[in-house]
Amino acid sequence: MADQLAKLDPAQLSKMPSVAPPPGATVDFNGQNPLETTSIAVTSVFMGLAFFFVAIRACTKMKEYNRRSWDDVTCAIGLLGTLAYWIVFLLQVVNEGFGRHYWNVPLIITLSDAFFKLAFLSDWMCNVAYLFVKITFFIIYWNIFKPFHWLRIGIIGGAVTFAIVYVAFIVASLVGAAPRPGRTWFQAYTEPNDGIGKKLSLPLAAWALVSDIYIIILPICGVLQLQLSRQKKFGLSMCFMAGIG
Length: 245
Prior knowledge:
The protein is mostly helical.
């Protein structure tokens, strides 16, 4: 398939939709991307909030304790990784048709090296951000719940497991998803013998769900062991869930 498409003239590719439109739909390459403005606005607001809350956290910690710890480092790296991933996402929205129906995106865009290179960058950048953000939670949990022996085991075991799994995904994305010598970016992402980027999508999504549930449950289990009233336990649990969310 890649060889056949490679033989087509770019002028032909610029007039062909990436997928066939469904019945009743018409191809419109020149229409406004319906989600471009919304995607940029919403993600920009959340990135601004992320920087704001991290800055507030750092300032409060310095004012109250006048010290830094490892969770500050991992939090900062996670934030920078999220920023890099966000920039790649914006490039995909503005230049590569993200947010459009694919029948409104010309084939010359979705077959371009730029399209697959941005997909490649987003695959491993998001895992770097996930790794450091989630390790930050484990360091915070350690500082709060280390008197509980079984929670220490859960925190250390979780942190080590998360690090191993996310490093494995990052290495697989960097090494396996990049095209081998003599292969194109299109082949690396679409052909059955290559296409590792696609194969990683489902297990990565499943792992993200499982890891999020674990990170939510762990501190709640610790809160339940505290000598507090039910109302206070509920309030603390909600604080952890709100912060993680």
